[in-house]
Design a protein that fits this description.
With 228 residues, the chain is an alpha/beta fold. Helix content is 48%, strand content 12%. The protein folds into two domains: 140 residues, Rossmann fold (3-Layer(aba) Sandwich), CATH 3.40.50.1000; 77 residues, Putative phosphatase, domain 2 (DNA polymerase, domain 1, Orthogonal Bundle), CATH 1.10.150.240. The chain contains nine helices and six strands; from the N terminus they run βαααααβαβαβαββα. A six-stranded parallel sheet has the order 3-2-1-4-5-6, sandwiched between helices.
Length: 228
Amino acid sequence: MPITTCIFDAYGTLFDVAAAARIAAAEPGRGDFAACWPAIAGHWRLKQLQYTWLRAVMGQHLEFWQVTQDGLDWALEAEGMGDDAELRERLLQLYWELEAYPEVPEMLAALKAGGMNTGILSNGSPEMLAGAVQSAGIGGVLDDVLSVEDVGIFKPASVVYDLVGKRFGCAPDEVLFVSSNCWDACAAAGYGFTTAWVNRAGEPVDRLPAQPLHRLNDLRGIPDLAGG
């Protein structure tokens, strides 16, 4: 069946998760942080994801905002900056204002112009996602923002992907699901979505039962995939 609905992961796919650390590192008086911010940003993102997987397996769900704070605390301590409370608060503030990747607004506008349904499906809490969408100014080209909080478990649980069909009334093979997380794109492919992995970092594909159909360096090619 033709694609009718384009669904995007949020963090790392539409929104640059390294932006908070990068912006803080450029602020005056943060020389120590500037020297290690890439490592902290990398640790932060990895622990944030690991904690979602572990909590899903353990059946101990809580909102993504707490997971985000826990990941940051680990990352700061790992780089010897765990006592800098002001830096911690600044990074968390900036996380609510993440930058969208440059191609995002035009890409979403092209999908809407082509008659596609568009939406986000994310581990993020509704409040976090609303803040990011507003900061990026893309609310007008999204039909909905779906959060795992509606089912109480993080991706890649299949009940999360169920939310798309329930909201848009579409079959799985009508959905183009786009994620920068290969594991997410693989899981969505196994669920039945057509999937595109946005591999900005040039990483190897994850060894999982299903594989993404498409692999891209950024989001500019998504309208063509959806229309083709």
